[in-house]
Amino acid sequence: MYNHFGYQKIQQVGENYLTFYRSTFMPNTVIFTPQLTRRISHFKKYDIEVPKKLLEKHSKRPDLSGFPYPLPCRKSSYTCFCEGENGVMWYGGTGGVTRFDENAESIYDKVMFFSAKRDLLDNNVSALEADGDGVWALTDTGVAHIEMVKMTMEEKAYALLHETLTYVQRHGMVSQKKLSESSNIKSALPHGHSDNDGCFTSGFAIGEIFRYATLKREKGAFSPETLDALKTATRASEACLLLMYIAGRGDGFVSRTYVTSNEIVPDDGLFYKKNGETAVCLNTTAARERKLVGHEVKADAPIPKRLRKLYADEGFEDEDITYKGDTSSDEITLHYLHLLVAHEFLGKEDPELDELIIHAAKATMDHIINHGFELYECDNKPTTWAKWSKEYFETDIGWADACLNSAEVMMYLKVTMHVSGEEGIYKETLEKLESEGYLDLVTKHFDRFHQASLALGVDDREEVMYGDHMLAVASFFALISLEKDEKKKELFRKGFRSWRYTLAPEFNPGYEVKG
Prior knowledge:
This protein has 515 residues and is of the alpha+beta class. It has 17 helices and 17 strands.
């Protein structure tokens, strides 16, 4: 029912932002019908649940010479097949399992692919046995049962929400977890992080805030479901905000993520171990390359008590915290959209939270302005990917990034002015960027992306950074919703439409736009 940027049950909800979302990004109301969803179970070869027919089967190679659609594997790799209900065909081989339903309504449901380790224990399939609309698949290392069940969007959303809160979240953050057993969510390891914890958690928080707003309107502020959504949205928002404070540098620097003393510190970036009023850069490959090992950085800015509770309630002190630096524009962009949405739907009911939102927005915006539109690390040099300056836009990589990054930084300024109610330096800075061509840059994404692909000799359809789609939606959502000048608003709409070429194939209702 809901996705990262709102909801998939698109209705006019709450105040002006959800009204805007539907009228601008969704040309029509979209009704979602139940869809087939894969449900996977794994077994050992001789488990009692495994049908004897599967183990005794003498497989034959299918004749795919006249197959009407592209297959996910070479035709010669398929070594077995079976027919299920309603003429559905299952094909297996050295590359996994393919399901073919000639009568499927959508072209995208006609051919489905199943592979290790999400679906199968390994990809070498030697026999298949139909089971209703599902199939049993025998591989070298075991047996997989693939069950196809119809689920509504709401059912699927709540199932994923349960998994997220039960197995994936870490200190309130939506992170990445590794499994000790393939496809067994219950085997998720207690530790684990990603570069994009701030980005993922912000997206999750935004979706949960919209879920809360929807339920509040539909079921009332005090229904158990509404209150549960509020609790989830608030905790996720606090986790996002903590990343904007936890470094303690006092200059608006935002951390990518953090780990506690009972978690592994991986060798994949810059990590700072807090120790009283300072933090020390740990010995990692990235730190050695940047000559920062052992470097001490200020860490005496107080962490707001309300946010500190996220780790203090788990028994950790400030000295147990190691935070990750070298933060990118990905995190900053989703943080600012979250600040906007949280301010609109939570801040009015929660003044304490709103104060934290306003301070975070201003502090990070001040940092970016004071450092020439870049996020700076403790060595007084910019982080690898948080750059919105004209100087960066003149580099080879920056030339292609400029269209998105110019939209991002203008969005930060607009959000900061909106949530704080202050203009001053933020308005002056925005006008300066507009006069330097940032407004025009936002409309040039398609041209620059295509030209960059041609220069590299690659197919632009294969070079898509799908994470950039999320950043573009976040940036243009806020820009269009906050802009009052109709001419500028149309430029932002044009800019968003320049992403349509790569956005459309995702079929994400949150990415739709008029015109």
